[in-house]
Amino acid sequence: MLCSILSREIDIEPLIAQIIINRGMTDSISARRFLDPSLKYLYDPFMMKDMDKGIRRIIDAIRGREKICIYGDYDVDGITATALLITFFREVGIDVSYYIPDRISEGYGLNIQAIKEIRGAGVSLIITVDCGISDIDEVEEAKGLEIDLIITDHHHVPDRLPDAVAILNPEQKDCPYPFKYLSGVGIAFKMIKGLRSALRKEKWFQGVLPNLKRHLDLVALGTIADIAPLVDENHILVKYGLKEITNNSKIGLRSLKVISGINEKDIDTYDVGFVLAPRLNATGRIGRGDMGVELLISEDISRAMDISRYIERVNRERQHIQEKILKEVKEIIEGGLTSKESSLPISRGTQAGDSIRPIVLASDKWHPGVIGIVASKIVDDYFTPTILISLDGERGRGSARSTPFFHIYDGLRECSDLLIDFGGHKSAAGLTIKKEKIEEFKERFNMVVKKGISNIDTIPIINIDAIVDLNALNKDVVKSIDSLGPFGHSNPQPILLAQGVRVIGEHSIIGKNGQHLKFKVLYGSRAIDVIGFNMSYMAEAQGLTPSFNPSDSRFDIVFTPQINRWNNSETLQLKLRDMRKTV
């Protein structure tokens, strides 16, 4: 009923209306904004709590010629947020410094030694990006050194907050800002948008105002990399940001695209999430995070290419380390053995019907900068909350990742008395723990997870947007579906179900390692290509053997429709997600 109403009100196909409704846009106003994500729909930055306080303090610092330092995180969100602020301040004629902590020697967030060094350089105002919300002691230390703090952070808001001049985080309970899921760089963008407005009122600008739209490339990079929900403001920011990356004028990004081999194509969320972001992340994981910032703010093409080559080398090293750790972790899990390195009992990955068992492993051989990626891959394969801990002497630093059904930050909070510190959000978190507490933590965390989720939550679920008649699909409909992008978290590529289709002809196993499945389906009078990436196993599972008789069986297939472009021609293709024999 709602689908029919929305379809009529804004004159769109019922299928498109249903997809939009599934993403939370149930009225014509929000649906129109989703279909036409204009920059005019961005919210007023001064709706965010403490925005006015933070802007006033920055303007006072500018007037007083105070030294300002941007303190960022070493991941892509923090790197892009730092680069964004540096670039903006340069454009308005203000020289600011920046500081990116070393992941290994300093860890996440503010640290007292860094604050002392920053103060020694004459800085009296620190603006954090993508960190600081939990750093109570460090902010107190800064105050004692006569440094003011403006904190911009999007991580979970703790019960007690630091005593900063301003805290910009829309997740604060008393913050009226309408959209709660901006990334760290998204909040930084809102701050410079507010600062530009305030500086204009101060008559700071004599000529043309800085064009903030040009810097949405950095916002898109950080937002996609941090897996922020691509709805509401993020949908708008990333939509425009991807265009800026494609047509980029920033020397650093151009050089990174060249090194990555994607400089001659329209950039999409896949290119950012799986090509550009991992390379930038590698600098903070096993290299120098400040090199990522230097690349993004570089105005020298020769230097930018040198940094991009360095990043490429570091990323290859990261991949090698990651593969080694992943192999070891899987061997431990699959063997159901006791890890000598962790001295912890290991349980197998959860399967449907098993009792719920999160994975908690530790080793002094695992690089702390890479365990987060490995933990994410373990969650993908075993669909259970996973914590990997890198031991260094009597302490361990852990990366936690979770499924959609368990809030990992809340889970850690219930074990907080066993942790030195922790922070994060629903799906990802970090922690520090004493080695002697790990076994007790594992037992407690196991109980917390069992209490928090049920057995059914350990089974991966495919959310289907709509049941469709394949005869109703055509290239125009698929192009309308594609226009709902950019796709990502909370706005995934639409998944459809067609029931009772026939497989015709012979299937084929393709790919360098024979990992992909390809076949045709017939529905009515139509024959359509189906491609299942990394799904060659499905041929045997569904009985698509050489003796298979298609007239004996019909299948329900779950897929995403695509336009396959090859040799200047376009054909409809179905990207397989799952299939089963029709009951």
What are its keywords?
583 residues, inorganic pyrophosphatase (n-terminal core), 5-stranded mixed β-sheet, 19 helices, Diaminopimelate Epimerase, Chain A, domain 1, alpha/beta, 5-stranded parallel β-sheet
Question: Could you explain how this protein is built, in words?
Answer:
- It is a single chain.
- The protein has 583 residues and is an alpha/beta fold.
- It has four domains: 2-34, no CATH class; 45-312, inorganic pyrophosphatase (n-terminal core); 336-458, Diaminopimelate Epimerase, Chain A, domain 1; 466-581, OB fold (Dihydrolipoamide Acetyltransferase, E2P), CATH 2.40.50.460.
- It contains 19 helices and 16 strands.
- The chain has helices at residues 2-10, 14-22, 28-35, 51-63, 76-91, 112-120, 136-144, 184-201, 216-225, 232-246, 251-260, 269-285, 289-297, 301-335, 371-382, 408-413, 438-452, 475-482, 537-541; strands spanning 67-71, 97-99, 123-129, 148-152, 166-168, 359-363, 386-392, 395-401, 421-424, 428-434, 466-467, 496-510, 516-523, 526-532, 555-566, 569-581.
- Strands 2-1-3-4-5 form a five-stranded parallel sheet, sandwiched between helices. Strands 6-7-8-10-9 form a five-stranded mixed sheet. A five-stranded mixed barrel has the order 12-13-14-16-15.
- Helix 1 packs across helix 2 (14-22), helix 5 (76-91) packs parallel to helix 8 and helix 13 packs antiparallel against helix 14 (301-335).
- The radius of gyration is 25 Å and the shape is globular.
- The chain starts with a helix and ends with a strand.
- The model is unreliable at 337-354 (pLDDT under 50).
